[in-house]
Amino acid sequence: MLNSGTIRWNHVLGRAFIYLMLGAFALYYLIPLFVMVVTSLKPLDEIRSGNLLSLPMQPTFEAWGIAWNSACTGVQCNGLQGYFYNSMIMVIPAMLISTLLGAMNGYVLTKWKFPGSNVVFSMLLVGCFIPFQVILLPMAKVLGMVGLAGSLPGLVMVHVIYGLAFTTLFFRNYYITIPDELINAARIDGASFWTTFFKIILPLSTPIIVVSTIWQFTQIWNDFLFGVIYSSGEQQPITVALNNLVNTSTGVKRYNVDMAGAIIAALPTLFVYVVAGKYFVRGLTAGSVKG
Amino acid sequence: MVTKWLERIMPRLVLAPTFVIALVFIHGFILLNAWLSFSSSNLMPKYDWAGFIQYERLFANERTAVAATNLFIFATLFILICLFLGLLMAILLDQRIRGEGVIRTIYLYPMALSFIVTGTAWKWILNPGLGFEKLMHDIGFETFQFDWLVNSEMAIYTVVIAGVWQSSGFVMALFLAGLRGIDESIIKAAQIDGASLPTIYRKIIIPGMRPVFFSAFIILAHIAIKSFDLVMALTGGGPGYSSDLPATFMYTFAFTRGQIGIGAASAMMMLMTVMAVIVPYLYSELRSQRHA
Amino acid sequence: MNGLKITNVSKTFGKTNVLKDINVEIADGKFLILVGPSGCGKSTLLNIIAGLETATTGRIEIAGEDVISRDPKDRNIAMVFQSYALYPTMTVRGNIAFGLNIRKVPKAEQQQIVDRVAKMLRIEDLLDRKPAQLSGGQRQRVAMGRALARDPAIFLFDEPLSNLDAKLRVDMRTEIKELHQRMKTTVVYVTHDQVEAMTLGDYIAVMKDGIIQQFGTPSEIYNHPNNMFVAGFMGSPSMNFIPCQLTEVGGEVGVYLQGHTTRFFVRLSQTGKDYSRWLGKNLMFGIRPEHITDYAEQVGAQEAIPCKVDILEPTGPDTLLFITLNKVKVVCRVTPETALQHSIDKMPLYFNTAKAVLFDPASGLAI
């Protein structure tokens, strides 16, 4: 009797310990977000008098307004809004084009293999592994040659090209699980290459389309490397503008504006994560096992 | 006739743009960059042959050693801590936890953020005057000092802190998927043999997850070598150039200091480093696939 | 008119010959079975008939027309796949009508055809469901419905029953046979199951290593196998192969068989073949389990031989006995009553030598 009682006690203690640890980890991940939010809602004097975790006495959205409308990002002082729209204008076409191309590539690479198709795939896959530093200089030259240097269309092109390896990989790995017999059935039914793609394969692809678009959306939205190198002035994406805002050294450092700006820059991808987290994680594991 | 012919070559037609992209924008560009690294390019790219002069300049530069040392420190700590925390959290989460979904969501959300956002947030948290230090003062540790962000000896460690915060949840997800993939009947057999839970983890489950360790290591190493945005947002490579990493070094030389040749050479060195990590991995992957 | 004519078809992948010089011809309306172990090339041959794979050499004629250079859709064929290959995003109706749609059959006519096929297969209630909502047997019917909707010159079946459970498989087998008798369309049917082959086929082509080992009617294949492979592959339990030496005793050709306790002589005069050339040679004595049995009346005049039984396996309708002859395990089939009546040390068994086949062990060919 006594013995089994001890075992039960040990069990309860063990469970309590596990939950305590898990809670501590959750706090570790949440506190920075909490700090960002409360800081963005505090006036500057409260920031100086309080500390990271102290709640705002008089919550105000003033810093958000400044970050959106009038904060200086280098020479201009028009806030982040223009850059937020820039990122949207850049992300949406880049995401859609690279996903569509990836789907078509995956379809050919799994269902219409021809001698050499696997070579093309291997050549493309290298793009998942290389550090992009190694293509930055030649790309800058090519963008200059075709007159897209420093522009959003140029950035769209760069993101489509270097996202293609990932989207192709997603679709190839998904389509490889679709039985070839389905394609054979369609061929005997008389369906052409494109009829099979649009009527049979694409309707089956919803989950992987979601994974691919979400992956591309977060990758492109969060990109800084291509943005800082291939865009300039009014055409910059939000990550670059945020970095400029935070590092603009004129006048008083306004931490609340920095935090509001950071949250604004993070909101779209956070929103996608909360709404479609399952697909986000699937893309993450599928995409990054390869890099 | 024409439609029939078109139908036959359609697969090739569809893949053709991708072929061109891979050939030109990946492989061609790597070769072009290699050429630049052997040229005399400075402010403007020049396509001539200058031998190893850029590499000599690169290795003669004192910033190179700093960036390489920093990469070593950052990569080692970043990878080890992420693996440890990730595995620990995954094992804890694997104990039939109520609310697992919510907890997982919380652990993973930093992965959805831009490194610029993460850097901005941690730059504020680690702020020497008003950040973490002030918080500790307010709690009662009045002599507490924390100035890593502006201390050239310690700045690289702040990058580790922010990097771990962003990526460890993802490693947890990888390990959790690995744990869930283990055959339940093996665990049941071990339980019947009388093994305790810690023994089962130590002797059976964790050794069974070698491939997960391996791929997590590769991914983290890859992230570490490519790290650019986080340093830019958090320390800007400073104070001075004390927290430079190869990626920021390359950017600085190629795009702000007009030393294109050195930039190209450093990019080649980064490529070599990545290859040194990934080629053996790919090789073993391919080999095990062939055996399977 | 020819239903199907396959002339000199070969297929090589790199250096491996998947199919070697295949020649088959069947009349219109016949049911042809391609049977063999996995990897024998039967599915490749079916895919070549369908046009899904190309032959390295050879010709294919369907209903008298050379189709070798035509696309699958222009060969006037319909096919039922092993995994059914139903389009997952379409309803049953959409699946059946898809081929008609692509061929631009008018909507009203499509409707008619779908209804007719659905009635024939008794799937009227399922027309608006998606494949995922169907059971295995129902999916199988829909897959057949999709083929039937097209009224082709030839039906191709690729192991259509192998994903069904045992009972359903027997039911569907009967139904396929009924359908064929009603429709009288040529069928090529691939299977690895010799029972399906025996029950369904008008003709059977037994394949191995890319070669047709024997082509013939089910009874020819079963009773007069060309070689040891065909003899062993068709029939369950398999034919027994007993090593022996051909001898002549008192003017009668036969073989000696050595059991645990008895040694006896089996005469081969009833097979009606001339074995004189093989006297004194080592041969394989092939005999099916049902031909070592207790039904005296089937076997004729020969006397029963008492054998010691090693293992006894009742299967229900009959009982399998395992005895040892010339140091190999031999299966016999008797009625359960006989098995119970006699001592297992002295089970009286009759050898129906009229049905026995002798093989040359070197070539494996029947003598």
From TrEMBL, chain A:
Subcellular location: Cell membrane
Domain ABC transmembrane type-1: 84-276
Pfam families cross-referenced by the UniProt entry: BPD_transp_1
SUPFAM superfamilies: MetI-like
UniProt entry keywords in alphabetical sequence: Membrane, Transmembrane, Transmembrane helix, Transport
Membrane topology: Multi-pass membrane protein
Signal peptide annotation: none
Membrane spanning stretches: 12-31, 83-107, 119-140, 152-175, 196-217, 259-281
Any GO CC annotation of this UniProt entry: plasma membrane
InterPro entries per UniProt: MetI-like, MetI-like_sf
Superkingdom, natural source: Bacteria
GO BP terms in the entry: transmembrane transport
Family: Belongs to the binding-protein-dependent transport system permease family.
Protein name, per record: Carbohydrate ABC transporter permease
Organism: Thiothrix fructosivorans
From TrEMBL, chain B:
Domain ABC transmembrane type-1: from-to ranges: 68-283
Membrane-spanning parts: 12-36, 71-93, 105-125, 154-179, 212-234, 260-283
Annotated localization: Cell membrane
Annotated CDD domains: TM_PBP2 (cd06261)
Classification via InterPro entries: ABC_transporter_permease (IPR051393), MetI-like (IPR000515), MetI-like_sf (IPR035906)
Membrane topology: Multi-pass membrane protein
Single Gene Ontology BP annotation: transmembrane transport
Keywords per UniProt: Cell membrane, Membrane, Transmembrane, Transmembrane helix, Transport
Entry protein name: Sugar ABC transporter permease
Organism: Thiothrix fructosivorans
From TrEMBL, chain C:
GO cellular-component term (any): ATP-binding cassette (ABC) transporter complex, substrate-binding subunit-containing
Gene Ontology biological process: carbohydrate transport
Domain of life, source organism: Bacteria
Gene Ontology MF annotations: ABC-type transporter activity; ATP binding; ATP hydrolysis activity
Residue ranges of every copy of the ABC transporter domain listed in the record: 4-234
UniProt cross-references to SUPFAM superfamilies, sorted A to Z: MOP-like, P-loop containing nucleoside triphosphate hydrolases
UniProt keyword terms in alphabetical order: ATP-binding, Nucleotide-binding, Transport
One of the Pfam families matching this protein, by short name: OB_MalK
Full protein name: sn-glycerol-3-phosphate ABC transporter ATP-binding protein UgpC
Species per Swiss-Prot/TrEMBL record: Thiothrix fructosivorans
Lineage: Bacteria, Pseudomonadati, Pseudomonadota, Gammaproteobacteria, Thiotrichales
